[in-house]
Amino acid sequence: MKIKFLLVFVLIPFITFAQEIQPDSLKSSEKSWKFAAGVSLLSNINHTRQQEAQPIELNFRYNIKNKHTLRLGIPLTLNHKIFGEPEVSSGHTVGEMPALDYIKNMKDGDLYPFYNSFYKTLKNEYSLYGISVGYDYSYKLMENLSAFAGADLEFCHFSANAKYYNIHYINMSDNYMASMTSVIFINRNINSNAYMCRPLLGVRYQFQRLLIEGNLGYSFNKRKFYGDMTLDLGYQGGNNEIRKHKFGGYVYNEKQFNYNINISYIFK
């Protein structure tokens, strides 16, 4: 969010400079504009199923005769860190204890006496990038204010990488005479391609060279997942084993109401 507002403030010197040297053109620019570029300020659009935070989204608009607008958007997140355990599912159980409760008890020192497991995370992060193209038709409500209806089509790619150790201690008897320790190094890659169609309604307000736009939309998403995992299994006694797995073919279809507010600078 700080980066988004920083990008907005970068535009301020351009606006001040334009006000000082081109007052007449500013007045005319409020009546018609051609090209604008900016950034989203607020949004709850789920570009991918796994995103933890909203990406930076650059927006570009090209206006034709004050009624037709071509839309271009670029969502982008680079190396966003994922916090928490890298491999815990609320549906998984350790013995009769849910995995999340087991991890909590383990951290609190109340260890299960026969089977202990914990993680050492080296890396757990994701990146996201995409492109959306669209069109909207606008209707003038009053001076510098118009309503519009349109649609966006988007493609987005998600890539996550996790490297961590999964350490197990297994005690197979009450007197601790039979036990085993295993250390598993895991390198996991998860990817997804997402396709979205988003009809939308919104309003657009122009103030000198600033263009403020807000819209509500309903998105139809289709996402396909694929990835791979490499396991280096080290057992007590020095015997190592390498296993490689590939997975994919998981398809999800989702629908969502969402909103987007962005601000742009008009280039005459």
List the total number of helices. Answer: 4
Shape by Cα distribution: elongated
Low confidence ranges: 1-30, 89-95, 110-114
As laid out across the biggest beta sheet, the strand order is 1-2-3-6-7-8-9-10
- Average pLDDT over all residues: 77
Q: End-to-end distance, in Å? A: 28 Å
Radius of gyration: 26 Å
Strand elements, count? 10
Q: What is the makeup of the main sheet?
A: 8 strands, antiparallel, barrel
Q: Percent of residues in beta strands?
A: over 45%
The total domain count is: 1
Give the structural class. mainly beta
Return the string of H and E elements. HHHEEEEEHEEEEE
Helix content: 10-25%
Signal peptide: 1-18
Keywords: Signal
Protein name: DUF3575 domain-containing protein
Describe the structure in your own words.
The protein has about 270 residues and is mainly beta. The chain has one domain. About 15% of the residues lie in helices and about 65% in strands. The protein is built from 4 helices and 10 strands. It has helices at about 1-10, 10-20, 25-30, 100-105, and strands spanning about 35-45, 55-65, 70-80, 95, 95-100, 115-140, 145-170, 180-205, 210-235, 240-265. An 8-stranded antiparallel barrel has the order 1-2-3-6-7-8-9-10. The protein has a two-stranded antiparallel sheet with strand order 4-5. A hairpin with a 2-residue loop joins strand 4 and strand 5 (about 95-100). The radius of gyration is 26 Å and the shape is elongated.
Furnish the topology, listing elements before pairings:
Blueprint: H1 2-10, H2 12-21, H3 23-29, E1 35-43, E2 56-64, E3 68-81, E4 93-94, E5 97-98, H4 99-107, E6 115-142, E7 145-171, E8 179-207, E9 210-235, E10 240-267
Antiparallel strand pairs: 1-2, 1-10, 2-3, 3-6, 4-5, 6-7, 7-8, 8-9, 9-10
